[in-house]
Structures are given as structure tokens and as C-alpha cells.
Design brief:
It is built from 3 helices and 5 strands; from the N terminus they run ββαββαβα. It has about 90 residues and is an alpha+beta fold. The strands form 2 sheets. A 3-stranded antiparallel beta sheet has the order 1-2-5. Strands 3-4 form a two-stranded antiparallel ribbon. β1 and β2 form a beta hairpin. The protein is globular, with a radius of gyration of 13 Å. It binds iron/sulfur cluster (SF4) (2 copies). One iron/sulfur cluster (SF4) binds next to α1.
Amino acid sequence: MSKEFIFSTMNKTNKALLIKIEEDFCKGCGYCIEICPKKIFSESAKRNKRGYTLPAIQNIEECLCCKKCELICPEMAISVILREEREAVEE
Ligand code: SF4
Ligand code: SF4
């Protein structure tokens, strides 16, 4: 089973925001780093079990929930979820 790392916070409209990365899906392409308008992703030294470099995440509270990162990731490793959507999924 793939490991995942999750970052969560409240965004500026006080909605619970969660960014999830399926660690073992990542191929280290860096597209998420390039596309994010808020520079939420950056390069890190951390690697997954296949040796690919994982993105680091910072300033998550700045996230616009535009989902560009989710859409561009060729490995479908990223999920950006607002709490309302998450609750809808879990119901
Ligand atoms: S949803 Fe948009 S602002 Fe948030 S991390 Fe992804 S690309 Fe950046
Ligand atoms: S776009 Fe996806 S595969 Fe590429 S570095 Fe980001 S999380 Fe990894």
C-alpha cells in the first residue's frame, strides 16, 4: 500500500483544506512545483521507495484550492480537498 503524507489547515475563507500526496506514486517530475501560483510546493531531499524526489509543502494556508497541481500531476499523486467535499465523499 502506498504511503501518503497529508497537510491540513484552514484556508483564508475558513474552510478546512487538505493536500494529500500519495508518496509512492510520485515520479519527481516537479510539475506541481512549477504550476502552483502560490509556491506551496518546493524541492526537497526526501525520496520515495523508488528513489524519486518528493515535493515539500509549505504555506498551505495560502492555497487557493485551484487544483492545478492535482490536474497537472501525471501520476495522480495529489489530492486537494476542501472539508465540504471530503464530507460529501465520506457520507
Ligand atoms: S490547489 Fe492551487 S494553490 Fe493549492 S497547492 Fe495546488 S496549485 Fe497550489
Ligand atoms: S507533479 Fe506529481 S509526480 Fe510530479 S513531483 Fe509533483 S507529486 Fe510528484
